[in-house]
Every structure is written in C-alpha cells, then in structure tokens.
Design brief:
Elements (H helix, E strand, L loop, with lengths): L1 E2 L4 H10 L3 E3 L5 H4 L14 E3 L9 E4 L2 E5 L4 H6 L5 H8 L4 H6 L2 H7 L7 H6 L3 E6 L2 E6 H4 E3 L2 E2 L6 E7 L6 E7 L10 E9 L5 E9 L9 H13 L4 H10 L10 H18 L4
Parallel strand pairs: 1-3, 2-3
Antiparallel strand pairs: 4-5, 5-10, 6-7, 6-10, 8-9, 11-12, 12-13
Bound molecules: flavin-adenine dinucleotide (FAD).
Length: 279
Amino acid sequence: MVILPKDYKHTLDALQDEKLTIIAGGTDVMVKNRNWSGLIPRVEGNSINIFQLNELSYIREDESGLHIGAGTKLEELLNSPLIFEPLKAAVREMASPAIRHVGTIGGNVGNASPAGDTLPILYVYDTVIVLESVEGIREISIFEFITGPGKTTRKSNEIIKEIILKNIDYTGFYYEKVGGRRSDAISKLSFVGLYNADEKGTIKDVRIAFGAVYKTIVRNHELERQLLQSLNSEKSMEDIIDEYSQLIQPIDDQRSNANYRKNCSLSLLKSFIQMAGGN
Ligand SMILES: Cc1cc2nc3c(=O)[nH]c(=O)nc-3n(C[C@H](O)[C@H](O)[C@H](O)COP(=O)(O)OP(=O)(O)OC[C@H]3O[C@@H](n4cnc5c(N)ncnc54)[C@H](O)[C@@H]3O)c2cc1C
C-alpha cells in the first residue's frame, strides 16, 4: 500500500505509526526495487509518497546558512539564484533533465550513495541535516548522518526535513565529475575543491572532497589543515598527496575499476592544488 499524506503533519503521524519506505521523486527507490518489465516495483512493506508535499519544497537563506527543503527538486536548485555555484555545478552534471525534474535533494542524501553527486558539495559546506518526527527536531552533521553505502542514522519515524549548507567564502573552486554517457552517468568518481584567498593571495581556507572512491564521501580536515600550511609556505605537496592516496580506496564495479579511479582522483587533486597556487 502507498500512503498519500494530506499534509506534512499527516506524514509525521504515519511515520510514527509504522515503518514506511519514503518515496520522494522515486528515481532511486523505483530503480532499487525494480520488478520484471510491466510489473510495479516491489517495495518491502508499505510506503509513503511525499512528492506532492509543498511544505518540503523551499530554498531560503539566513545567517545560519542556506536552507533547502528536502523535497526541493534538483531542477529547482539549478533555477534558484540563491544556490551556490559549486552545488549548481554538481547538479548540472546529474542525470537527465527528466530525472532532475522529479529527483530531489532529500532523495540524494537519503540514498546515501558514495556516488551521490550532491554529497561531496554538501560535505565541503559542512552541511547539517535536519530530521523531524512527532518527537521533535534533530540536527546532525552530514559526516555523522551518512555511515556507509545506503546507510544513515535516520530513525524510521524521522523524515529528512531540510538541508542546511553553512555560509562559506571562497575565491576559487574546482569541480569535476568523471562519468560515462551524460544522461545516465552515475559518477565513476567526482572531486570538489574550494579555496579562499585574501587580496595578497594568502590562502585562508581550503576544502576538498572526493565522491565514489570510498564507502562514504572522503573529506579529511587534518589533511586540509596541512595543505593550507603548505600552500602558504610553498612546501612540496607530495606528502599530502600521498596521505590522500591512502584515503582513496575505490572498488571495481561495472562503471570503472579501482586503479583508474585512484589515479584519476589524485590527478584531479594535483590540478586543484596547482590552481590554488601550489606545486
Ligand atoms: C537514469 C538515472 C540517472 C541518475 N543519475 C544520477 C546522477 O548522475 N547522479 C546522482 O547523484 N544520482 C543519479 N540518479 C539517482 C537519483 O536520481 C538521485 O539520487 C535523486 O536525487 C534521488 O531523488 P528522489 O527524490 O528520486 O529519491 P527517492 O528515490 O524518492 O528516494 C531515495 C532514498 O531517499 C529516501 N528519501 C527520500 N526523501 C526523503 C526524505 N525527505 N526523508 C527521508 N528519506 C528520504 C528514500 O526513502 C530512499 O531511500 C539517477 C537515477 C536514474 C534513474
């Protein structure tokens, strides 16, 4: 049975009553549970379809950051002047216009795939995930929310309500997705690097994340700190690149092989370091 909730409150009540599969755009749920041709997908247990809930579709900013309702469609992210350019760069490379028309940002986060294309961007923006249930609101950093491929710390009575990207300043960013054919290109790997330099060229902040090269998105604050020091002292980056190489542990799958993913990730990292003025 698929529940079509009247409104947001009804959704929270229904999630409290029983364990339900949440369906937003359904572009991941339907593929994961696909059935033989001509038959409806086999979702375990009952589900709740939140696609039509306007309460979850919004983008607004305040001093705590950029608030994106979980039901906001990928297409709406591209059309909003409030969305930061690095997030737009990632969404532009995602799927086809038809999938972006129904797929949501909450679905990309809830799916928790290491190849989810919005995720590296959300990691560099120190994103907070806001969950709600009839018991109240819970806020959790994306680093703690996603625990492995397809695994999150969401409780069955909770819904992802909103995603908050922190406000950060940057003077340069580099985003690259290595995929296959554009319209069905799930990432072989992806890379995002952001840096912020002052008017004298001193780098004040540097952030890096890799997608699809480990069980979760790879972001390491300690290596970013070391990279920041090296960028400002013109030290060689070889040791840092070596350390990142330990963190990048991709798998072989139908989209690519581990060796290619590793070499490609490190070469994107080197390009970013050069862009930020390092050697
Ligand atoms: C042809 C094709 C191409 C694709 N290409 C890409 C691509 O290039 N890059 C990419 O990253 N992805 C891609 N995807 C995957 C998918 O489109 C995205 O992950 C999309 O963002 C999922 O959103 P959705 O609303 O459809 O999620 P759904 O399928 O509805 O849900 C996905 C998961 O999130 C959970 N969920 C959804 N909303 C909530 C919520 N508010 N609270 C709690 N849990 C929730 C669901 O229960 C489910 O586990 C592709 C899919 C297809 C079919």
